[in-house]
Each structure stands twice: as C-alpha cells, then as structure tokens.
Amino acid sequence: MKLNLDRQLATPLVQQLTERLRDWIATQRLRPGTRLPSIRDLVREQGVSQSCVIEAYDRLVSLGWLEARHGVGFFVAERKGQAPFAEEPAWGEGAEGRWRLFSDNQEDLLRLGCGWLPGNWRQSEEIALAIRQISRGAEQDLFGYGPPLGLTVLRQQVRKRLALLGIQVQPEQILATQGASHALDLLVRTLLKPGDKVLVESPGYYNLYNLLRLHGVQMLEVPRTVDGPDLDILRALLDEHRPRYLFVNSLYQNPTGTSLSPRSAQRLLELAGEFDLRIIEDDIYADFQEGPATRLSTLDSQQRVIYLASFSKTLSSSLRVGYLVADAALIARLAEVKMVTGIGASRFAEQVVAQLLGSGVYRKSVQRLRLRLAEHMASALRLLEANGWEVFAEPYGGMFVWTRYPGADFSCLQQIAQAEGVLLSPGSAFDPQGRDSDWLRINVAYARDVRAQAFFQAVGQMALRRPPAS
Fold first, then answer.
1. Which listed residue, of 18, 32, 155, 156, carries a Cα 20 to 30 Å from 103's Cα?
2. What's the pLDDT score for residue 10?
3. CB pairs under 8 A, 24+ apart, for 370-379?
4. Membrane: is it a keyword of this entry (predicted)?
C-alpha cells in the first residue's frame, strides 16, 4: 500500500493518512467487509506513530468509511444511501471550500481569511466572570425558556446602544436572535417564498447566498463598489424585475471592507421609496466603528429599512446573541416564526450579554478592539503594498481587506499558502454563483502572524522569478 505521506507539507500526518486511506479505499473499490491492515502493520509500512494510525482509523469510522470490530480490526463499511465509494461530499466549493474554515481538523493552520477575531483578543476573564454571576443567579436563567422577543434587560441595553448610533426605536421594535445568521433566516422564512427575487451584493456574504438558495429565492446581483452597491445596475434591476428586498452591508462590508458613502446611502433610500423596496441592513460590524458613520437606518424616514446586528463578532462566536429592528407589526410576525422554529433563544446567553453591556465591560472591550484592529489594518495594508498585492479599496476600519496578486490564480496562491501553513478563503466563496475569482478575503487580525507574512512575501518572490512574457 503506497500512501505517499509527505513530511514536508504543512498538512498534519494524521490528516494526510486519513485522506490517503480514504482515497485508497475508493480507488481500489474495496467491498464492504474488506479488512484493512492492522494498526501495527500500518505503523511499520508508513513509518508513523501508533497514535497517528489510531486517530486516522477513528476519523474514517466517524466519517462512515470504516467500521471497528472489537478485538478484530477495522473493516470497510457499507455506505448506505450513497453511490459506492463516492468522494466524501465537500463543504463549500471544493476541498478548500468556505466551510473548511470551521473544521477542527485545521487547527494547526493559520485561518487568514476567517471571519472572526483571534481568541486571545477576547475578554475571556470578564466573560467568565459574567457567566459565573449569571450561574449564581435565578434558576430560571439557567433552565428556563426565553420570552419570544428576548429578555427585557437585553433589549433595554440594545435600545440604549442604538440611540448612540442615532437609531431611535421603541422596545416592541427589537427582537433578540441567536446571532445575525438567525436574524437573516427569520427574515427569509417570513418575508420570502420560493421563486421570489431579491437583490444581493456581489461579492457578499456567502451564508446569505446559501440561505436564499435553500429557500428557492432567486438572487439578482448588484456589484459592490467602493461607495456601496452599483447604483446604475441597481436601478436597471429594479426597473426590470421589481424585487421587494435588498440585502446590504452599510459599514465594513463583507468581504470588501468598504462602507456606504453618504451620497450612495441617500440615493438608495430614494430608490427604495420609488420602487417600494425594503432594505435589510446587516450591520454586524457596527461596534468596530467609533463616531459618526453612514447607516441607512439613521437616515430612514419611511421605515423601509430592517436593521440587524450581533455581538458574536465582538464578544464570542459561542455567545450567539444578535437582534433585529423593524416596525412592531413585522417584529411580532418574526417573533412568532422564531418560536415555531426554535422555541425562543438562549436565555442564559442573553443574560450574559446583558450583564456585559450593563457593567461597562463591553464598551471598554470594543474600544480596545477598535484600536488594535486599526493598528493591524495599517500594518496589513503596508505589507500588501510592499509585496506587490492589489487592494480593492483601503478600508478605514473593520477587519477585512479584499485583495489579489496580479496574474496569480487561486490554485497557485493556495499551493504557496499550504506550504506556509496558511488556510485561505477563496474569492469564489463570496460570489453568488460560486464563480472562480482571484480575489481573497484577508482578516487583518491575523496578518502579523509570521506565516501570513511568509505567504505574502513568497507570492511576491514567485512573481519576481517568472520569465518575462515574450
């Protein structure tokens, strides 16, 4: 059995062994019940540790490729409901798809394109203290269901924060959710049906695309420019298709990092009034901005904007707490869908977030995050420029840069990244149709890592070694 393990690769041996064994089973077309080499034999043949072989076999058992028979060994499993020995379905677009960023098997790689902050940037001690305080409180907060709109104490804190942004709302206009993705799901379930057409930004948020596709909703693509959605194309799509909804990031758009200009925001609202359009404003990066910013919700005088945000990016990805803001009638409908589909949200998580907001811990935490991100943004832009990378736009905040290296496609960049221990987030993941792209989303919070710097420099050096075009 030749598995060709490569100890020079950044990919861990256990992952290589798992993938090579899976491929070997598929290419040999082994029948269910075929016995695989013993752990001892595979250790000797491949020159790896016993624990490496055991973990690889265990992974293949959990994936359904093998079955373990106590005291006998490992055997090819019958893969019911699937074509015999079909390739393991990939998450996202290919083996390097968007969902690979979330895999526990990639912990040794630097996730340069991920959508969250490093764990050591978070206020772990303060969060732990808030959790202990809630745990010592009323039993209902540990074991009870949350109310349909969310805890009153949380919604009061959210209302105060919205007022600081210039968004004035009543308590009945706020709905707590399990993060921004849950908010989007509630909106799609409530407002749309299969066959409906909506406007989305391109490039944009891949999970929104997946959600719309899941519900059979057609996407009309509006290119994202430095100032916001391309208004000419938007107008043409409105004229032709008359869609009812537009999904948009106003501030630090994902993935380009760009923000709405005042002129674009005003024109968007004018078009919304002219075409009876409602705008869903995803402001998940709201707290990365200090001071005035252009938001559609602050300019909306006709209640055409539905606003949503979350604390998951700034506090913890495990504290799934977000919120929706809309007219009271729509909030009541969304709350009903929320209860039908999930019987509420986490009362405990909402208590923890409310505690952090009310104590001032959250305010101090985001102030530190803004400063740190600003430093890393400046550093990342300098590094990219020094190594010949092209930037779509220079963001004035947030954590994303949309960049590419002239003349290098993703497969080329991916090869170099793997050699440096870096996991990339491909541009195709941010395209509504998954089309190939040479653009990459870079999270500046990770760009100072030596592996990221080595990757950027290696790409630049590769370009220098290219022979001139004849």
1. 32
2. 63
3. 370/288, 370/289, 370/290, 370/397, 372/121, 372/445, 373/288, 373/397, 373/398, 373/399, 373/444, 373/445, 376/444, 376/445, 376/447, 376/448, 377/401, 377/444, 379/444, 379/447, 379/448
4. no
Please name the amino acid found at residue 23.
D
Tens digits of per-residue pLDDT, 120-168?
888 788 888 888 888 887 777 777 788 999 999 999 999 999 999 999 9
Residue 288, H or E segment: none
Q: What is the pLDDT of residue 84?
A: 40
Query: What are the pLDDT digits (tens) for 326-348?
Result: 999 999 999 999 999 988 888 99
Q: Among 307, 227, 309, which residue's Cα sits nearest to residue 266?
A: 227
Domains of the chain: 13-76 (1.10.10.10), 100-112+364-464 (3.90.1150.10), 125-361 (3.40.640.10)
What is the 3 state secondary structure string of 3-43?
A: CCCCCCCCCCHHHHHHHHHHHHHHHHCCCCCCECCCHHHHH
Residue 289 in tokens? 């901005």
- C-alpha 219/C-alpha 397 separation (Å) is 28
Helix or strand or coil: residue 281?
strand
Sorting pLDDT into bands at 50, 70 and 90, what band is 467? low
Contact assessment for residue 317 and residue 116, using Cβ atoms and an 8 Å cutoff = yes
Long-range Cβ pairs for the range 314-318 (8 Å, 24+)? 314/117, 314/287, 314/288, 314/362, 314/365, 314/366, 314/369, 315/122, 315/123, 315/127, 315/353, 315/356, 315/362, 315/365, 316/122, 316/127, 317/116
Task: Round the average pLDDT of the chain to a whole number and report it.
Answer: 88
Q: How far apart are CA 314 and CA 88, in angstroms?
A: 34
Cβ pair 449, 420 in contact under 8 A: no
Entry pTM: 0.76
How long is the chain? 470
